[in-house]
Design brief:
Keywords: Cell membrane, Membrane, Transmembrane, Transmembrane helix
Structural class: mainly alpha
CATH class of the largest domain: Mainly Alpha
Order of helices and strands: HHHHHHHHHHHHHHHH
Number of strands: 0
CATH topology of the largest domain: Growth Hormone, Chain: A
Protein name: MFS transporter
Helix content: over 70%
GO molecular function, one term: transmembrane transporter activity
Number of helices: 16
CATH superfamily of the largest domain: MFS general substrate transporter like domains
Subcellular location: Cell membrane
Pfam family, one: MFS_1
């Protein structure tokens, strides 16, 4: 019951996140230099978790998680309100950056709290799958709802709705009364902050299965990130399809993720999560490769559905591996390290995708993305076999 409530509130927050992104893109795209500002929006949303996430991560394992999450969600609500009343683009970027910095703490904090809402001994993958399913519903409904609300209420009101979603999630965490306490032996004379920062990456590197899985996933993400840039050109140029088809394909990918999180991922036991991550990588690579080799609308629908399925398998598996492989007192820093690694890979892949699509075309870019994803995943197979024997 507690898991369902937390997952529902997280899904509501996902709707709010989508509302803000769509509302700001609609508001800023038509201004002078709008395309550069939109690029800045995307960069600001990712960069703090890469640069600051591991630096502030020790607080995740030093402060009781629900208290920390309530505090950070309150700050997100405050920055959201400030964003709604920002007088110009500069202040919009400032308040977005402030919220993104706070999210470097609240994102891993929420991941830490999910297992605490489950019964003792329950499969953490089932918990993360539940949250992912609700967030997928939010991401699926968000864009259409954002377009409607911007037209009816205006950008400012939509931004205030997003701010309210953070307050709602914070109130849910408070009402649930779920607690995750830091290690009992923590003292004021403990290791330096720099030493504590190193614990997160060391936790990933110290377990062979987790280290191999994390590295394979990050390298694969560099290639899979190409699809974000290539998808528009693939739809409008390669498929010569109208703009609404692009919207359909984006929705199909979200539906694939929802189906995977709601139906497939919860059925996989904890010991099968390494295999699920590898299977997700291979499936992702094959789907992307097929999109590039056999471009057609039916193939695009099928391929992007399986891209969504694979994406959910990968994200749920890596979270479950952190829970099963890292001692409780270091999990916050381990989650922050995984998020930073994956978001850094996303930035690298997205940056490379623009020139690649411009020079080689969207179909070739997707073929390269598929082949690269498979190549990045195959080395993890041996580690997975060792972990599941």
């Amino acid at each position: 019951m507690r898991l369902n409530i937390l997952a529902s509130a997280s899904g509501l927050s996902a709707v709010g996140d989508t509302l803000t992104v769509v509302a700001l893109m609609l508001a800023l795209q038509g201004r002078p230099g709008g395309s550069y500002v939109v690029s800045m929006l995307v960069l600001i949303g990712i960069l703090p978790s890469v640069l600051l996430g591991p630096v502030v991560a020790p607080i995740l394992d030093r402060v009781e998680t629900s208290r920390l999450l309530i505090a950070t969600l309150s700050l997100r609500c405050a920055t959201g309100i400030a964003l709604a009343f920002a007088p110009d683009v500069v202040w919009i970027l400032v308040f977005l950056a402030a919220g993104s910095v706070v999210s470097a703490i609240d994102a891993p904090a929420l991941l830490l709290l999910v297992p605490e809402t489950q019964r003792p001994g329950a499969n953490p993958a089932a918990g993360y799958a539940r949250v992912d399913a609700f967030r997928s519903v939010g991401a699926l409904a968000g864009p259409a709802l954002a377009g409607f609300l911007v037209g009816v209420l205006g950008v400012q009101a939509v931004l205030l709705v997003d701010a309210a979603s953070f307050a709602a999630l914070g109130l849910v965490v408070l009402a649930l009364g779920v607690r995750r306490h830091p290690p009992a032996d923590r003292t004021s004379t403990g290791p330096s902050w720099f030493h504590q920062i190193r614990v997160g990456p060391a936790a990933l590197a110290g377990n062979r299965t987790l280290a191999t899985a994390s590295l394979a996933l990050a390298v694969a993400i560099v290639f899979t990130s190409i699809i974000t840039v290539a998808e528009v050109s693939y739809t409008t140029v390669v498929l010569a399809a109208p703009a609404f088809v692009y919207g359909v394909l984006v929705s199909v990918q979200a539906i694939g993720r929802l189906v995977s999180a709601a139906v497939l991922a919860p059925l996989l036991p904890a010991r099968r999560q390494p295999a699920a991550l590898v299977a997700g990588g291979i499936l992702m690579g094959v789907a992307l490769l097929a999109l590039g080799v056999w471009p057609s609308i039916p193939m695009a629908v099928t391929g992007l559905f399986f891209v969504g399925v694979a994406n959910a398998l990968q994200s749920i598996a890596i979270r479950s591996l952190v829970v099963s492989s890292v001692e409780p007192g270091a999990r916050g820093r381990a989650f922050a390290a995984v998020i930073a690694l994956n978001n850094g890979a996303t930035m690298a892949g997205t940056a490379a995708a623009g020139p690649l699509v411009a020079v080689a075309g969207a179909a070739f870019a997707l073929m390269l993305a598929g082949a690269g994803t498979i190549a990045a995943t195959v080395p993890a197979i041996r580690a997975v076999r060792a972990a599941t024997v």
